[in-house]
Design brief:
Blueprint: H1 2-9, E1 16-18, H2 34-38, E2 43-47, H3 49-58, E3 63-68, H4 70-83, E4 89-92, H5 94-98, H6 103-106, E5 109-114, H7 121-131, E6 136-141, H8 146-158, E7 163-166, H9 176-182, H10 185-188, E8 191-193, H11 197-206, E9 210-214, E10 221-222, E11 234-239, H12 247-252, E12 255-258, H13 270-280
Parallel strand pairs: 1-4, 3-4, 6-7, 6-11, 7-8, 9-11, 9-12, 10-12
Antiparallel strand pairs: 2-5, 3-5
Length: 283
């Protein structure tokens, strides 16, 4: 523990070689099951060089430790020294990594982070309003596919979304697959989960947000008829693929909008739809 403390406070990034799979300093990396990490441990794991750099350069999360293979460490050493992570950087040989789950995915680059305290969704919406006149938010109802959630966070990062608000059933953006798909977006875009989804939608409108429910119906308004410069604070509301938004969510929205498509095509992937909507309504 004294070694770890010294490493965390040292302004010059150092590395420590780990030779034993049972070394207690890498205990968290021996259990990479998302549910257990999120539950009893209150942690999550970041995988891959690109996501590690996003974590260190752009995220409010701070790694508690970093675990690298010798090859990965050699390839990223210059960047790490420039970024000066304030945590232990462990380097372990390939035999140790071979005993960790998912080497072909993480490629010998892992970081362990603590989850932050849960934010209130409406507080995130208020903060966005305090910073700009017409912020864009995303609201997700019932999305259980980690790839889709990750893609939406990637789009959100690209198009300047200030927060993503989730219902109780939408999957965790800090699960490893979601982080990978998001290209680090879920490490950068603030998010919060609603205790009461209807109350949150109502609260957004009370704050002055227009809630646009994306719904591929002929009765919906074409999103191309809206002009980003003519609308104020906006929350883009998306539902899961297949069933889409619930009737209660549609009824609670300010208006329903659609993305025009070729005849015979009934819908788009929800992540693609979010990207199109954000591009057209970018503030």
């Amino acid at each position: 523990m004294a070694l770890e403390s010294a490493l965390c406070l040292d302004p010059v990034m150092q590395s420590v070689t780990v030779t034993d799979f049972e070394d207690p300093r890498i205990e968290i990396y021996r259990n990479l099951k998302d549910r257990e990490l999120a539950g009893s441990m209150g942690r999550f794991i970041v995988e891959g060089r690109g996501n590690l750099l996003v974590l260190l350069q752009r995220s409010a999360y701070q790694p508690e430790s970093i675990l690298l293979s010798p090859r990965t460490y050699a390839s990223i050493e210059t960047e790490l020294k420039a970024l000066k992570p304030r945590c232990p950087v462990y380097v372990a040989d390939r035999p140790i990594f071979d005993r960790l789950v998912g080497f072909p995915i993480h490629r010998g680059c892992l970081a362990a982070c603590a989850r932050e305290d849960v934010d209130d969704p409406l507080e995130l919406a208020r903060r966005a309003l305090a910073k700009e006149q017409a912020p864009r938010l995303i609201v997700l109802e019932g999305l259980a596919n980690l790839d889709n959630v990750g893609l939406i966070f990637r789009n959100a990062m690209a198009f300047g979304v200030r927060a993503i608000l989730l219902c109780s059933k939408t999957c965790d953006p800090l699960y490893r697959k979601a982080i990978r798909t998001s290209m680090g977006g879920s490490l950068c875009v603030p998010f919060a989960r609603a205790k009461s989804f209807p109350e949150m939608l109502s609260g957004l409108q009370t704050l002055g947000y227009e809630v646009l429910a994306f719904h591929p119906s002929a009765d919906s308004v074409s999103i191309e008829s809206l002009r980003s410069g003519q609308i104020g604070p906006t929350a883009l509301l998306f539902g899961t693929e297949g069933p889409g938004l619930t009737e209660s969510a549609l009824a609670a929205a300010s208006q329903q909008v659609r993305i025009d498509m070729e005849p015979g095509v009934d819908s788009l992937n929800v992540g693609v739809a979010a990207g199109i909507g954000l591009s057209l309504l970018r503030s």
